[in-house]
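Holo model, zinc ion. Inputs:
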Amino acid sequence: MAAATFSATLVAPSILNSHSETNTASSSFHKPKISVFAKPKSICFRSSGPRICRVFNANKFVRTEVNSRAAGVIRANAAQVAEEARPSAQKEMEVVDVDLGDRSYPIYIGSSLLDRPDLLQSHVKGRRVLVVTNTTVGPLYLDRVVAALTHGGSNISVESVILPDGEKYKEMGTLMKVFDKAIETRMDRRCTFIALGGGVIGDMCGFAAASFLRGVNFIQIPTTLMSQVDSSVGGKTGINHPLGKNLIGAFFQPQCVLVDTDTLSTLPDRELASGIAEVIKYGLIRDAAFFEWQEKNMQALLTRDPSALAYAIKRSCENKAEVVSLDEKESGLRATLNLGHTFGHAIENGIGYGGWLHGEAVAAGTVMAADMSYRLGWIDDTLPKRIVKLLKQAKLPIAPPEEMTVDKFKSIMAVDKKVADGLLRLILLKGPLGNCVFTGDYDRKTLDDTLRAFCHS
Ligand SMILES: NC(=O)c1ccc[n+]([C@@H]2O[C@H](COP(=O)([O-])OP(=O)(O)OC[C@H]3O[C@@H](n4cnc5c(N)ncnc54)[C@H](O)[C@@H]3O)[C@@H](O)[C@H]2O)c1
Ligand SMILES: [Zn+2]
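Output:
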């Protein structure tokens, strides 16, 4: 497909919204449409305690409901969940649905969700669970996850494997430890793997679940902001190869994602800011109102105001869920989630993985993408300024590190996954705030100008 045509089909969000009109039940921006001629059908998957039900209408996924025997049927993504489906001590919970037909799943977002045995137990298939975590997160939260799984004589038996912490362990040897444990403890096809940790654990555990016995049930409990707003949603799983990041993997969707916002209280500041870079991305590529909200609420996010964080996570998940439900396997639209990432990956690779956090590299990459968009005449000059201001406020970098030269950028970007037929396609901003394109149809000289503007040599 010609790049120009391609970019034209990927203008977001106005065209996107019209494409998705029949398919937007996953997003709480739109009310689920219930047609009058077909009776909704529910598929529920637990017979004891509160049940989680998926409602279909004319075979189309509509929404997730939490059915509580005590409280009656509650629509999970409606505000009254907070009022009726939980014991009075529990706080509000939001549910965002990822609409992928029979592989649809809910993202639960709220405080104290690790203390909600019903949620976790409802998504466990069989009686055997393997929790995959690491040496940092395990000591903080593993006991609570085990307690939730076994609460009330659930009959669920739980094993765990604690991996070393760090991106450098997202590789085959460490993955083998997960399989070793699963085989030693005789996990069978009806077992459930649970990822408890940040994106590294989520990607590894997800890939292990995708490949163990050709695929077992999988639950994500993301504990970094990065994983809560991005990596736990959408089913991309995988590990690194010595020759490149995320080169070995599979698309494999979880049964549910459980985001307990309280886990962010132990997250280091720098990791929090790294996640904020992805939150900013959603506003820029498709959600102007969300970007404007961030401009007003960045301080609340940085001071970890619980309701600000919960809102940012929910809105990010809604955006990601909608994109993923329209383009699960990244044939086009999903690539727009990579705003700033081509420049960012070059930075991560150029200075050596681990030098900068992913979100830090994405932040600098976003400024570079905005600069190039402005040079192309696709956005006005106020937008790059607003982006820089917001990133600075979040204490994120707004330029690449000194060691990144023009040549280094060029040589690394030449092998980017988004190169097709020798043409580097980029996600660039175009039009008013909240619009972007994924395109290879731009003036090469403009890319050079941007690189020269940000690099010393
Ligand atoms: N699958 C996807 O779609 C996708 C998307 C974006 C990123 N990723 C991947 O995610 C990874 C980055 O994820 P990340 O930023 O979460 O990094 P991470 O998993 O390395 O976590 C960052 C650090 O925070 C620690 N940590 C996690 N939760 C904590 C908590 N609650 N309290 C204290 N410390 C905690 C971790 O142990 C680690 O040291 C990369 O490997 C990236 O490739 C995947
Ligand atoms: Zn990213």
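The first helix runs from residue 3 to 9. Residues 107 and 257 are 5 Å apart (CA to CA).
Archived with the compound record.
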